[in-house]
Write a structure and sequence with these properties.
The protein is α/β, with parallel strands linked by helices. It has ten helices and nine strands. The chain has one domain: Alpha-Beta Barrel (TIM Barrel). Helices cover 39% and strands 18% of the residues. It is globular. The N and C termini lie far apart (65 Å).
Length: 271
Protein backbone atom coordinates (compact mmCIF):
# COMPACT_ATOMS: atom_id res chain seq x y z
CA UNK A 1 0.00 0.00 0.00
CA UNK A 2 1.46 3.43 -0.94
CA UNK A 3 2.64 5.51 2.01
CA UNK A 4 0.11 8.28 1.28
CA UNK A 5 -2.78 5.80 1.46
CA UNK A 6 -1.42 4.37 4.69
CA UNK A 7 -1.34 7.84 6.24
CA UNK A 8 -4.93 8.52 5.21
CA UNK A 9 -6.04 5.20 6.65
CA UNK A 10 -4.23 5.93 9.90
CA UNK A 11 -5.93 9.34 10.19
CA UNK A 12 -9.33 7.72 9.62
CA UNK A 13 -8.65 5.11 12.29
CA UNK A 14 -7.59 7.81 14.76
CA UNK A 15 -10.75 9.81 14.02
CA UNK A 16 -12.93 6.72 14.43
CA UNK A 17 -11.28 5.88 17.74
CA UNK A 18 -11.88 9.42 19.00
CA UNK A 19 -15.55 9.26 18.04
CA UNK A 20 -16.00 5.93 19.76
CA UNK A 21 -14.38 7.33 22.90
CA UNK A 22 -16.85 10.20 23.13
CA UNK A 23 -19.68 9.91 25.67
CA UNK A 24 -23.01 8.88 24.14
CA UNK A 25 -24.49 12.31 24.84
CA UNK A 26 -21.67 13.99 22.92
CA UNK A 27 -22.19 11.71 19.91
CA UNK A 28 -25.96 12.11 19.85
CA UNK A 29 -27.56 14.62 22.23
CA UNK A 30 -30.61 13.28 24.02
CA UNK A 31 -33.55 15.52 23.25
CA UNK A 32 -37.04 15.78 24.68
CA UNK A 33 -39.99 18.00 23.88
CA UNK A 34 -42.80 18.80 26.30
CA UNK A 35 -46.17 20.05 25.09
CA UNK A 36 -48.43 21.93 27.49
CA UNK A 37 -51.98 21.17 26.29
CA UNK A 38 -55.41 22.66 27.01
CA UNK A 39 -54.40 26.32 27.09
CA UNK A 40 -56.96 29.04 26.47
CA UNK A 41 -59.35 28.75 29.40
CA UNK A 42 -57.31 30.63 32.00
CA UNK A 43 -55.06 33.59 31.32
CA UNK A 44 -53.45 33.20 34.76
CA UNK A 45 -52.47 29.55 34.25
CA UNK A 46 -51.53 30.25 30.65
CA UNK A 47 -49.14 32.99 31.76
CA UNK A 48 -47.65 30.73 34.43
CA UNK A 49 -47.04 28.07 31.80
CA UNK A 50 -45.40 30.55 29.42
CA UNK A 51 -43.03 31.68 32.16
CA UNK A 52 -41.63 28.18 32.69
CA UNK A 53 -37.97 27.95 31.68
CA UNK A 54 -36.81 26.32 28.49
CA UNK A 55 -38.12 25.54 25.04
CA UNK A 56 -41.54 24.19 25.95
CA UNK A 57 -44.24 23.96 23.29
CA UNK A 58 -47.73 25.36 23.96
CA UNK A 59 -50.84 23.76 22.43
CA UNK A 60 -53.79 26.12 22.55
CA UNK A 61 -57.48 25.29 22.18
CA UNK A 62 -59.32 27.29 19.50
CA UNK A 63 -62.02 29.91 19.89
CA UNK A 64 -61.65 30.38 23.64
CA UNK A 65 -61.53 33.71 25.45
CA UNK A 66 -57.75 33.66 25.93
CA UNK A 67 -56.62 31.56 22.96
CA UNK A 68 -55.32 34.48 20.93
CA UNK A 69 -53.56 36.36 23.70
CA UNK A 70 -51.82 33.27 25.12
CA UNK A 71 -50.57 32.35 21.65
CA UNK A 72 -49.23 35.85 21.09
CA UNK A 73 -47.55 35.99 24.48
CA UNK A 74 -45.94 32.58 24.01
CA UNK A 75 -44.66 33.56 20.58
CA UNK A 76 -43.30 36.83 21.93
CA UNK A 77 -41.29 34.84 24.49
CA UNK A 78 -39.81 32.73 21.70
CA UNK A 79 -41.92 29.67 22.50
CA UNK A 80 -43.42 27.35 19.90
CA UNK A 81 -47.21 27.40 19.48
CA UNK A 82 -49.53 24.60 18.39
CA UNK A 83 -53.26 24.31 17.75
CA UNK A 84 -54.91 21.84 20.14
CA UNK A 85 -57.65 20.59 17.85
CA UNK A 86 -60.78 19.16 19.59
CA UNK A 87 -61.92 15.82 18.16
CA UNK A 88 -64.78 13.44 18.79
CA UNK A 89 -64.42 10.90 21.59
CA UNK A 90 -65.80 7.40 22.07
CA UNK A 91 -67.73 8.46 25.18
CA UNK A 92 -69.46 11.44 23.55
CA UNK A 93 -68.08 14.08 25.88
CA UNK A 94 -68.46 17.76 24.97
CA UNK A 95 -65.72 19.02 22.66
CA UNK A 96 -66.03 22.75 23.22
CA UNK A 97 -65.75 25.30 20.40
CA UNK A 98 -64.29 24.16 17.11
CA UNK A 99 -64.79 20.44 17.61
CA UNK A 100 -64.41 18.01 14.71
CA UNK A 101 -66.80 15.06 14.52
CA UNK A 102 -68.01 12.42 12.09
CA UNK A 103 -71.31 14.15 11.29
CA UNK A 104 -69.55 16.99 9.46
CA UNK A 105 -69.54 17.10 5.68
CA UNK A 106 -66.22 17.50 3.91
CA UNK A 107 -66.82 21.21 3.40
CA UNK A 108 -67.89 21.73 7.03
CA UNK A 109 -64.89 19.78 8.24
CA UNK A 110 -62.45 21.88 6.20
CA UNK A 111 -64.13 25.12 7.26
CA UNK A 112 -63.90 24.20 10.93
CA UNK A 113 -60.19 23.41 10.64
CA UNK A 114 -59.51 26.75 8.95
CA UNK A 115 -61.54 28.76 11.46
CA UNK A 116 -59.69 27.07 14.32
CA UNK A 117 -56.31 27.85 12.80
CA UNK A 118 -57.33 31.47 12.32
CA UNK A 119 -58.11 31.90 16.04
CA UNK A 120 -54.65 30.78 17.22
CA UNK A 121 -51.84 32.86 15.69
CA UNK A 122 -48.26 31.71 15.12
CA UNK A 123 -49.19 28.03 14.87
CA UNK A 124 -46.30 25.72 13.93
CA UNK A 125 -48.17 22.44 14.31
CA UNK A 126 -51.34 20.69 15.42
CA UNK A 127 -52.19 17.93 17.88
CA UNK A 128 -55.48 16.35 18.82
CA UNK A 129 -57.48 17.27 21.91
CA UNK A 130 -59.22 14.06 22.98
CA UNK A 131 -60.20 12.35 19.71
CA UNK A 132 -60.34 8.72 20.81
CA UNK A 133 -63.00 8.10 18.12
CA UNK A 134 -62.03 10.49 15.33
CA UNK A 135 -58.31 9.63 15.26
CA UNK A 136 -59.13 6.02 14.40
CA UNK A 137 -61.42 7.05 11.52
CA UNK A 138 -59.44 6.77 8.24
CA UNK A 139 -61.72 9.12 6.30
CA UNK A 140 -61.60 11.86 8.93
CA UNK A 141 -57.84 11.63 9.25
CA UNK A 142 -57.44 11.76 5.50
CA UNK A 143 -59.57 14.91 5.36
CA UNK A 144 -57.66 16.51 8.23
CA UNK A 145 -54.19 15.85 6.87
CA UNK A 146 -55.14 16.94 3.37
CA UNK A 147 -56.46 20.19 4.82
CA UNK A 148 -53.37 20.80 6.96
CA UNK A 149 -51.23 20.14 3.89
CA UNK A 150 -52.66 23.33 2.38
CA UNK A 151 -50.77 25.33 5.00
CA UNK A 152 -47.02 25.67 4.69
CA UNK A 153 -44.76 23.83 7.11
CA UNK A 154 -47.32 22.61 9.63
CA UNK A 155 -46.62 19.37 11.46
CA UNK A 156 -48.98 16.99 13.25
CA UNK A 157 -48.44 15.28 16.60
CA UNK A 158 -50.68 12.35 17.46
CA UNK A 159 -51.57 12.65 21.15
CA UNK A 160 -52.38 8.92 21.02
CA UNK A 161 -55.61 8.98 23.01
CA UNK A 162 -56.56 5.62 21.47
CA UNK A 163 -54.29 2.71 20.57
CA UNK A 164 -56.17 2.23 17.30
CA UNK A 165 -55.26 5.70 16.01
CA UNK A 166 -54.39 6.05 12.34
CA UNK A 167 -53.58 9.77 12.51
CA UNK A 168 -49.85 9.47 12.06
CA UNK A 169 -50.22 7.07 9.14
CA UNK A 170 -52.40 9.56 7.27
CA UNK A 171 -50.15 12.50 8.17
CA UNK A 172 -47.26 10.63 6.58
CA UNK A 173 -49.33 9.78 3.52
CA UNK A 174 -50.30 13.43 3.11
CA UNK A 175 -46.69 14.56 3.29
CA UNK A 176 -46.91 16.24 6.69
CA UNK A 177 -44.06 16.18 9.17
CA UNK A 178 -45.33 14.12 12.08
CA UNK A 179 -44.64 12.65 15.51
CA UNK A 180 -46.48 10.95 18.35
CA UNK A 181 -46.72 11.43 22.10
CA UNK A 182 -44.58 9.08 24.17
CA UNK A 183 -45.60 9.94 27.75
CA UNK A 184 -48.46 11.75 29.49
CA UNK A 185 -46.93 13.53 32.46
CA UNK A 186 -49.92 14.25 34.64
CA UNK A 187 -52.76 11.76 34.40
CA UNK A 188 -52.65 11.99 38.18
CA UNK A 189 -52.35 15.30 40.01
CA UNK A 190 -49.64 14.28 42.41
CA UNK A 191 -46.16 15.84 42.46
CA UNK A 192 -44.39 12.52 42.91
CA UNK A 193 -46.35 11.02 40.02
CA UNK A 194 -45.57 13.94 37.69
CA UNK A 195 -41.90 13.76 38.67
CA UNK A 196 -41.91 10.01 38.05
CA UNK A 197 -43.47 10.44 34.61
CA UNK A 198 -40.85 13.02 33.73
CA UNK A 199 -38.32 10.34 34.64
CA UNK A 200 -40.10 7.92 32.30
CA UNK A 201 -39.86 10.51 29.52
CA UNK A 202 -36.12 10.92 30.11
CA UNK A 203 -35.65 7.14 30.16
CA UNK A 204 -37.47 6.92 26.86
CA UNK A 205 -35.10 9.53 25.40
CA UNK A 206 -32.09 7.59 26.69
CA UNK A 207 -33.43 4.50 24.94
CA UNK A 208 -34.46 6.09 21.64
CA UNK A 209 -32.54 9.38 21.49
CA UNK A 210 -35.70 11.53 21.60
CA UNK A 211 -39.07 11.56 23.36
CA UNK A 212 -42.20 13.72 23.47
CA UNK A 213 -44.23 14.32 26.62
CA UNK A 214 -47.58 16.02 27.13
CA UNK A 215 -48.64 17.86 30.27
CA UNK A 216 -51.36 20.32 31.21
CA UNK A 217 -51.54 23.69 32.97
CA UNK A 218 -52.41 22.16 36.32
CA UNK A 219 -50.80 23.91 39.30
CA UNK A 220 -49.09 20.66 40.33
CA UNK A 221 -47.63 20.09 36.87
CA UNK A 222 -46.42 23.67 36.56
CA UNK A 223 -44.77 23.54 39.99
CA UNK A 224 -42.93 20.29 39.23
CA UNK A 225 -41.75 21.52 35.83
CA UNK A 226 -40.54 24.81 37.32
CA UNK A 227 -38.40 22.78 39.71
CA UNK A 228 -37.19 20.05 37.37
CA UNK A 229 -36.65 21.73 33.99
CA UNK A 230 -33.51 23.64 35.08
CA UNK A 231 -31.95 20.28 36.06
CA UNK A 232 -32.30 18.66 32.64
CA UNK A 233 -29.00 19.94 31.26
CA UNK A 234 -27.08 18.39 34.16
CA UNK A 235 -28.61 15.05 33.15
CA UNK A 236 -27.44 15.42 29.57
CA UNK A 237 -30.95 16.19 28.33
CA UNK A 238 -31.79 18.99 25.90
CA UNK A 239 -35.32 20.44 25.92
CA UNK A 240 -36.32 21.40 22.38
CA UNK A 241 -39.45 22.57 20.54
CA UNK A 242 -41.55 19.79 19.05
CA UNK A 243 -40.67 20.94 15.54
CA UNK A 244 -37.14 19.64 16.09
CA UNK A 245 -38.38 16.10 16.74
CA UNK A 246 -40.97 15.58 14.02
CA UNK A 247 -40.25 13.06 11.29
CA UNK A 248 -40.37 14.17 7.70
CA UNK A 249 -40.38 10.94 5.71
CA UNK A 250 -43.15 11.08 3.18
CA UNK A 251 -45.16 8.66 1.13
CA UNK A 252 -44.23 9.01 -2.57
CA UNK A 253 -47.93 9.46 -3.30
CA UNK A 254 -48.61 12.90 -1.86
CA UNK A 255 -52.12 14.27 -1.69
CA UNK A 256 -53.27 17.85 -1.93
CA UNK A 257 -56.66 18.76 -0.48
CA UNK A 258 -57.86 20.60 -3.56
CA UNK A 259 -56.92 17.76 -5.91
CA UNK A 260 -57.60 14.55 -4.01
CA UNK A 261 -60.66 12.38 -4.50
CA UNK A 262 -62.83 12.49 -1.41
CA UNK A 263 -64.30 9.62 0.55
CA UNK A 264 -67.33 9.67 2.79
CA UNK A 265 -65.85 7.53 5.56
CA UNK A 266 -65.55 10.41 8.01
CA UNK A 267 -69.27 10.95 8.17
CA UNK A 268 -70.25 7.35 8.72
CA UNK A 269 -67.27 5.32 9.92
CA UNK A 270 -67.55 3.70 13.33
CA UNK A 271 -64.09 2.13 13.29
Amino acid sequence: MPEQCQQRLLRLLILLSALLALPAAAQSPLRIAIIIDDLGYSLYLGQQAIELPGALTYSILPQLRYSNIIARRAHKRGKEVMLHLPMQTTDGRALGPGGLHQALSRAEFARQVRVNLATVPHVAGVNNHMGSLLTRDPGAMRWLMQELRCFDDLYFVDSRTDIRTVAREYARDAGLAHAARDVFLDNRQNPDYVRSQLGVLIARAREHGTAIGIGHPYPTTLAVLAEELPRLADQGIQLVPVSQLVETERNPKLWHASLSPLQTVAKNSKQ
